[in-house]
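CORE FACILITY INTAKE
Project code: CF-77B
Contact: R.S. (postdoc)
Sample description: multi-component assembly, four entities in total
Requested service: structural model of the whole complex
Turnaround: standard
Below are the sequence entries exactly as provided by the requester. Do not edit them.
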Amino acid sequence: MANIKDVAERAGVSVATVSRVLNGHSPVAETRDRVLAAVRELGYRPNSVARALRTARTGALGLIISDLTNPFFTELADAVEDAARSLGYSLVIGNAGERPEQQDDYIRTLLDRRIDGLLVSSAGSGSAMLREVVASGTPLVLLDRSVPGIDAPCVRADGRAALTELAGHLAALGRRRPAIIVAPAGTPTGDERLALFRTALADHGIPLPDERVGATPDLQPTGGRQMMRGFLDLPEPPDAVLATDNLMALGALDELRARGLRVPDDMALVVYDDVPWFAHTDPPLTAIAQPTRELGRAAVRALLARIEGRPAESVLLPARLVPRRSCGEPTAG
Amino acid sequence: MANIKDVAERAGVSVATVSRVLNGHSPVAETRDRVLAAVRELGYRPNSVARALRTARTGALGLIISDLTNPFFTELADAVEDAARSLGYSLVIGNAGERPEQQDDYIRTLLDRRIDGLLVSSAGSGSAMLREVVASGTPLVLLDRSVPGIDAPCVRADGRAALTELAGHLAALGRRRPAIIVAPAGTPTGDERLALFRTALADHGIPLPDERVGATPDLQPTGGRQMMRGFLDLPEPPDAVLATDNLMALGALDELRARGLRVPDDMALVVYDDVPWFAHTDPPLTAIAQPTRELGRAAVRALLARIEGRPAESVLLPARLVPRRSCGEPTAG
DNA sequence: CGTGTGTGTGTAATCGTTTTCACGGGGTGC
DNA sequence: GCACCCCGTGAAAACGATTACACACACACG
């Protein structure tokens, strides 16, 4: 591939001039055309590795995502990618696969590659490595999941309003024994959703006893199915279940079908994260929709602020309730 | 961040020695420990940008994917990422979003970044830029979709056996008027699936007239829904529909529900690509499963062969039929 | 005892850019 | 007509690594 020296020779100028023309630095009037012609003829493209070495800017952002096959994170990644691209950055995606050690490994590689900034949707306790990121001075923004003890802005959705609305929704429909399926205790996201849901229900005089709180080891369908099984085997089974992650809801739905129970007649079902698929299930599932694309955009914006040395504060965007038919209300799907 | 010179000074050796120790080049016996100690103390990590410039190897692979929100491609990306990582490469993902010009744009950026090799699951007619990739000498492997006129190995699934089996399956279940929903004519994948399905049906004496071939403009649910609508409005509607992409199947399913038709009683439904979700629909959908993870692995393997100068030939892995209940056979879901 | 071989190390060139610094020339202000 | 300034340009120094080459030393062999 042609390099800048080839272009310079062909245009009869020095490499410095070529560089300046290409970066629009000094508005060179007449040589400019010669240089551009040479560039065109040779099909020259600047080597961004060399440029990165010199300028200490790679033009790439890193995104660590906890599970690439989870539609919520996929949409998030898609949004981030879009936003980054439109600002001239490309995106290196690292898939942590919910395994902290793999996450650490990936973060290290990204630091070695001198990405300009890092977005992390953390898989649990990767805080040791995250501390190193902060120490290294690489701009960092947390996404969807906050990490205690890490001093970086966090962009995520606030479920309070939606969960409050949901509690009212369920109460109005006569559901009195709600249950919730959450991530294992200690996961900030899970704990928070549980707490918010519980207090929201309390406002309507509805209790959420521990027997109707199921913590799954993983965020997969099987976990959701197990929890649902446990609920149905209770002496007094719940009449509504909130699954706090979309994959778990699928498993829960399976168990209901396997027992021949109908949604919403025998059981109301609500899912956290409104991935497009849930509009196509039977019945369409009532969901708590996080503003996924906005989250992605806001995160990139915050990260860019940090990169450019401006201050960036945390962002909390409201999630909202999307009522469909899975709780009993006759709403259009 | 500390650089190699800092390490050299601290260890009282030259930068060359440090480099050699770190790359295991000459087995330096005694100074080795001093160097490693210095590395540890300073928390030194080699700058891969500088290394890439000097060695002309970045240790990164590029993956262009046509739609990051399509579960089939997501799983593919996940598999590729896994394979790449386990071989010490990291992955830069470019999401073409089914738009050729965005795809070209991304390919160019990846070339500028001097990735060591490129995997492309092409969104249609990006062949101009692909030709440039070939010309640039960057190792290229096509994934899932072949591109006419591009001389590069292609890794994809062969649907022949599965579609043959499907034809037999449908025939045995008494379905006589099959239909198919495909990508627009001219898309290699769509054309091929159509042709294979048609000949497979012919072997059972079942015709596939053009009126029961629906080509959608996009691969989205809405397209699938429109096609299904068209089929149902025929004087003689089909009694079985094969959707050749997973998202289109969702839309088709919606239309059936909207009309109160039941699967499989009123209509058999089969979907191409067995994304996990289809095991959880009601009823579970019979699917043609592509060996997604194997495809990803094989593609990375082929790409590495090219990178290392070994020859790599195209790979064709068999897809297989996963019968579930959506065609009427009483099979466990 | 001198020469050859091998091992371990340092010096310096190199990768392809950007950018600082210096320089030459043409214009303007006095 | 002289001093000054500004603008466009080129030469050369970075950036941080790898690696070709040379050198110094120790040892063995003739």
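Facility notes:
- Chain A has three domains: 4-46, 58-157+292-318, 158-290+321-327.
- The CA atoms of residues 198 and 208 of chain A lie 6 Å apart.
Invoice: internal transfer
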